[in-house]
Fold ABC-2 type transport system ATP-binding protein.
Amino acid sequence: MNVIEIKNLTKFYGKARGIKDVSFNVEEGEIFGFIGPNGAGKSTTIRTLLSLIYPTSGSATIFGKDCIKFSPEIKKEIGYLPSEVFYYDNMKVMDLLNYSASFYKKDCTQRIQELAKRLNLDLTKKIDDLSLGNKKKVGIVQGLLHSPKLIILDEPTSGLDPLMQQIFFDLLEEENKKGATILFSSHILSEVQRLCDRVAIIKDGQIIKVEKISTLQENTYKKFKIQCASKVDKKHFDMVGVNDLEENDNVISFIFKGDINTIMKKIAEIEITNLWVVEPDLEEIFMHYYEKEE
Ligand SMILES: Nc1ncnc2c1ncn2[C@@H]1O[C@H](COP(=O)(O)OP(=O)(O)OP(=O)(O)O)[C@@H](O)[C@H]1O
């Protein structure tokens, strides 16, 4: 079952492009990454899903219901962490969280205490006295306190130190194991790689790829570096699938895409002293996609 279905969603801010024809689905129980550079349209998509802004055209459903028409009902089952959090500064953290909890028809007291303890958040402090990172933690507790079925996170890690990020990721994985579906927007590739099952890549307001993280990594090129026993003419590797061929001090390097057996046979024809085969990291894969589409 799809928890989120987005169909040809388009949003123009006056004449300015927000998003164009965005379509993708998020299945129940998955952690879905939404990745793209600044200004690509991640927040616009998310804010439309939450009916904080209205689409110019297209539609989206959450739990099978139109996200604009049924917004109040749907929101009860969603935990949302916006990219920037703003609060009434002179409230105490506990009062703010109790106020947030009052929107849901369940007792969230125990969960608030648990989350605050895990995140090392002082509930007795005034919001005004909190650092940026601690304000972010308040947002996280707000997003998770009602054990939502769908968690939507817009660039959630900014302001969190590495240790806190780890605790936060652990929390998300626990919620996911309990059944929550997660939509996670980010421009940080390593965190998407670490957490997500599938990913939608957005650029200039348009989706350029929806793919499993594992497939993205499998179906791309590999980087070869070969140390040869003696000088080898680099033309030896001038063949289909080989790119960026370079030779330096008996070391030949290139990028290879294609059947791995063909390149292994070619390597076996020469005397080598060492060989490195490196998978590109996600960053390189995404750069490749962005360049290809230009
Ligand atoms: N209120 C607005 N008025 C006019 N243009 C807007 C508005 N909000 C967003 N935009 C434009 O829409 C496009 C998409 O912005 P959006 O904030 O959705 O991107 P994003 O992927 O979330 O980027 P970031 O990571 O920088 O938040 C950008 O070109 C942006 O300038």
User: Anything to note?
Assistant: The first helix runs from residue 42 to 49.
